[in-house]
């Protein structure tokens, strides 16, 4: 098989199957032939002393066991990713505070109104006599100043109020839940997954979710104002509104579902990358000693490649969305020109120019609206994970009915257990069932586990003394 096998054992039963024997004896390594290495020690047998520092051997590397992966709730997670969960929105709004949410919504609404209404002021100024131009200029300046104040208010409420409060509240809840989690949670959960909660998920809460929420509100109010202004200038365009909404609904449904899946895959692939990095840093001494640097280097590179695949596909999906929305707006512009030609006696040049300008702006607004909504929706996967920890991870709190023993306890030194039942976790069967035990003072006891292991008593100590 062209394979080198190393067997490390203290048994002599398999000596006849070996080609060479390396015997550790008297602080040296002896090279012996199996045929001459009999049961009784032969002092005349040839031996070679080998320097252990210069000892080089070819090792057969065994694959390292991977971290514990929980795939039990995959089906439920897929449903959640495809349809979303309204409770997640409420959980996030509760973390940012309702007053902060209202403040941000008010600022974005004021900004969107001022930004869109300024174009209507230009229409009035174009159709009005020249002597009223100063009035419209002053009104335009006032509207621009209000928009500037609203923009600063949006940034302040988003970055100073919402981001700080949501990050602080969610991080504190996560830290408290993890610190109070039982030992079984840490043995059943991959370390990289726990680190991903404090790293990538909290990073989304701090940096991506607040701007995505502000951008979503901003684009919604801007699109509403642009739609109202467009219909006021060209009422005939109302016939195209239902078809536009239907098209945008199906486009965002496809884009949102795919984008959310890719973002979840991106978050999950990073857990494997973090686990590989932690394994490398924790075992760097062993890796260097056995010459495994290339192997772990390849594993880290492979983990990086896997983590970048969902990100690349997400960029491709965003390009697809832009192309589709551009085609949709082109169709709407063609409809506008066709309707203008049909009803040219009722449409002025100013109205046509303003309508085309609004369509161009609506195209950009609609694209940013879908992207902001998708960014918020997919980034809420971090909120869903944090919410899942709060609901699924048990808290190992102190029993409020527990009684603290006095400072003199135990006064007699005896221990009595009556009808005690216990298990390693709530999902496993009972390891102890209705056990009653009485240990008298001074009595020595040896506790033997269910696997047969126990503490072997020595000469002076034969067990646990009560």
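Sequence proposed for the structure above (466 residues):
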């Amino acid at each position: 098989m062209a394979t080198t096998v190393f067997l490390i054992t203290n048994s002599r039963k398999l000596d006849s199957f070996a080609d060479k024997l390396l015997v550790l004896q008297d602080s040296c390594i002896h090279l012996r032939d199996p045929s001459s290495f009999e049961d009784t020690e032969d002092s005349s047998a040839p031996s070679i002393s080998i320097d252990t520092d210069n000892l080089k051997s070819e090792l057969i590397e065994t694959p390292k066991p991977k971290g514990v992966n929980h795939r039990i709730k995959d089906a439920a997670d897929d449903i959640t990713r495809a349809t979303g969960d309204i409770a997640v929105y409420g959980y996030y709004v509760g973390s940012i505070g309702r007053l902060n949410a209202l403040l941000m919504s008010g600022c974005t609404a004021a900004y969107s109104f001022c930004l869109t209404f300024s174009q209507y002021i230009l229409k009035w100024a174009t159709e009005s006599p020249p002597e009223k131009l100063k009035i419209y200029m002053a009104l335009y300046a006032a509207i621009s100043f209000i928009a500037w104040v609203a923009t600063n208010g949006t940034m302040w409420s988003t970055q100073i109020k919402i981001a700080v409060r949501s990050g602080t509240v969610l991080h504190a809840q996560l830290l408290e839940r993890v610190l109070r989690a039982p030992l079984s949670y840490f043995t059943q959960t991959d370390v990289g997954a726990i680190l991903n909660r404090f790293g990538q998920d909290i990073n989304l809460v701090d940096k991506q979710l607040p701007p995505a929420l502000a951008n979503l509100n901003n684009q919604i109010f801007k699109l509403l104002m642009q739609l109202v202004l467009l219909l006021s200038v060209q009422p005939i365009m109302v016939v195209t509104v239902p078809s536009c909404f239907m098209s945008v609904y199906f486009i965002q449904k496809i884009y949102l579902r795919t984008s959310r899946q890719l973002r979840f895959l991106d978050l999950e692939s990073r857990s494997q990358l973090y686990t590989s990095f932690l394994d490398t840093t924790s075992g760097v001494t062993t890796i260097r000693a056995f010459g495994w640097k290339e192997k772990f280097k390849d594993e880290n590179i492979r983990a990086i490649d896997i983590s970048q695949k969902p990100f690349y596909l997400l960029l491709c999906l965003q390009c697809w969305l832009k192309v589709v929305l551009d085609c949709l707006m082109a169709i709407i512009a063609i409809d506008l020109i066709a309707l203008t030609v049909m009803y040219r006696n009722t449409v002025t040049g100013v109205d046509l120019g303003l309508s085309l300008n609004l369509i161009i702006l609506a195209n950009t607004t609609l694209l940013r609206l879908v992207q902001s909504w998708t960014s918020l929706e997919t980034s809420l996967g971090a909120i869903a994970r944090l919410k899942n920890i709060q609901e699924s991870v048990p808290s190992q709190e102190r029993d409020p009915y527990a009684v603290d023993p006095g400072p003199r306890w135990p006064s007699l030194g005896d221990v009595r257990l009556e009808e005690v039942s216990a298990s390693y976790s709530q999902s496993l069967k009972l390891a102890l069932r209705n056990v009653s035990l009485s240990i008298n003072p001074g009595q020595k006891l040896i506790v033997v586990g269910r696997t047969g292991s126990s503490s072997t008593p020595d000469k002076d100590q034969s067990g646990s003394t009560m």
